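Appendix B, example 12.
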Amino acid sequence: MESIRQEAIAVIDEILEKTNIVEKDIVIIGCSSSEIIGNTMGTSKDGETDSVVNELYEVVAPRVAAKGAFLAVQCCEHLNRAVVLDREAAIQYGFDIVNVVPQIHAGGAFAVKHFKNLENPVVVEDIKQKALVGIDIGGVMIGMHIRPVVVPLHLENKQIGMARVSAGRHRPKYIGGQRAVYDPNLM
C-alpha cells in the first residue's frame, strides 16, 4: 500500500508542478481502482479496493484543495461519465445538477469516496469542458471534460499500482500567423 501512496504522490505532485492551476479552476480525475490493483476495470468485488481508494484520495484531495481548485471526479460509464463535485463549483460554473448518488457499481469507488467526503456534494451530467487539468488513472477517458485545446502532459511518473496514468491540460488556442507572438506562460 505504501508504494501506491508514493506513486500517487509522485504523479499528483508532478502534474500540479507542470500546470498553472489557480483558485477555482477545475481538476478532473477519472479513476479505475480495479485497474490499480491489477484487475480489469469494473470487476473488483465490493470492498476490495477500499484501502487503495482511501490512500489515493488522501493524497489527491488535499493537494488540489491547497491550490484552491475544485476537485471533480468522473463517474463510470454506468452513470454516463457524470461528474461529482462541490455544489459551489456547480453553481459558479452554471452546471445542471442531476439527481443520482454514485454507488460502487454505478459511479465507481473513487466517485463514491469523493461524494461522501464533500460537504455539499452534487452530481452534474456534464462540466461543459471546463476542467483545465485532467488525470486519467486506468484508462477511463476523461478528455471530454477538459477545455480545448487539450495538450498531453508528458509524465515521468506514469503508474499508480498496476494502472497506467495519463494527464492533459488546457492551453489557450494559438491565433495569428507568422507575425504572431505568444506568451510562454500560457503554452
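The radius of gyration is 16 Å. The longest strand covers residues 163-170.
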